[in-house]
């Protein structure tokens, strides 16, 4: 075959989640960007919630996309800072997360309403099978940093999550994180 890409190398800072050199534009998500994903309205709309550092490649299933995510500590209402969460647009596409720093959890859900909550910590590898929506949540006091690699043509379906939510919420309790049923799941 005639190769489509040339090889490349970048240095990943295992604590900060940054690439040197950067491979693509950093995506920034503020509280305002997450309006409708948290139960409460954003109290500080301009405040940074997370950044995604991508290593873009063609969006074809012969390629492997990867990125790091840095999710700040914080809450909106009782809910810990979290990513929007998504199904892959091509539903059966899978993904791997590797925890680099901080303390978090990965909330997963199927279209028929099953859910799982898995830990994200330094050195942990999470496998996200096709068909499972996924959202990461920072339940600690430091940034949560993880690396993700996924099938190139997976794409992202955020609209289903914005409409239906996840079956459970991860909230700050008196003695730490509490996972509760989401009263607004699939209104
Ligand atoms: C991509 C992968 C991650 C997320 C990132 C931000 O498939 O799951 O790179 O994109 O953690 O989350 P979200 O839900 O805003 O894309
Ligand atoms: Zn994904």
Give an account of the 3D structure.
There is one protein chain. The protein has about 190 residues and is mainly beta. It has a single domain, classed as Jelly Rolls (Sandwich). Helices cover about 5% and strands about 45% of the residues. It is built from one helix and 15 strands; from the N terminus they run E-E-E-E-E-E-E-E-E-E-E-E-E-H-E-E. The chain has one helix at about 160-165, and strands spanning about 10, 20, 25-30, 50-55, 65-70, 75, 80, 95-100, 105-110, 115-120, 125-130, 130-140, 145-150, 170-175, 175-180. The strands form five sheets. Strands 3-4-5-13-8-11 form a six-stranded antiparallel beta sheet, with no helix packed on it. Strands 10-9-12 form a three-stranded antiparallel beta sheet, with no helix packed on it. The longest helix is centred in the C-terminal third of the chain and has 6 residues, at about 160-165. The protein is globular. It starts with 10 loop residues before the first strand and ends in a 6-residue tail after the last strand. The mean pLDDT is about 95. Bound molecules: D-sorbitol-6-phosphate (S6P) and zinc ion. Zinc ion binds near residues 95 and 134.
């Amino acid at each position: 075959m005639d190769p489509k890409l040339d090889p490349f190398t970048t240095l990943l800072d295992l604590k900060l989640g940054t690439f040197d050199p950067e491979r693509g534009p950093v995506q920034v998500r503020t509280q305002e960007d997450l309006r409708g994903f948290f139960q409460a309205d954003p109290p500080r709309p301009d405040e940074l919630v997370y950044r995604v550092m991508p290593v873009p490649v063609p969006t074809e299933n012969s390629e492997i996309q990867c990125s790091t995510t840095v999710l700040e500590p914080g809450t909106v209402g009782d809910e810990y800072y979290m990513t929007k969460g998504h199904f892959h647009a091509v539903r059966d596409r899978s993904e791997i997360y590797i925890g680099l720093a901080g303390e978090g959890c990965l909330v997963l859900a199927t279209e028929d309403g099953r859910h799982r909550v898995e830990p994200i910590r330094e050195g942990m590898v999470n496998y996200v099978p096709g068909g499972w929506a996924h959202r990461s949540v920072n339940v600690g006091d430091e940034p949560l940093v993880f690396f993700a690699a996924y099938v190139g043509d997976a794409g992202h379906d955020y609209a289903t999550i914005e409409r239906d939510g996840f079956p459970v919420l991860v909230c700050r309790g008196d003695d730490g994180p509490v996972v509760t049923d989401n009263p607004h799941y699939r209104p």
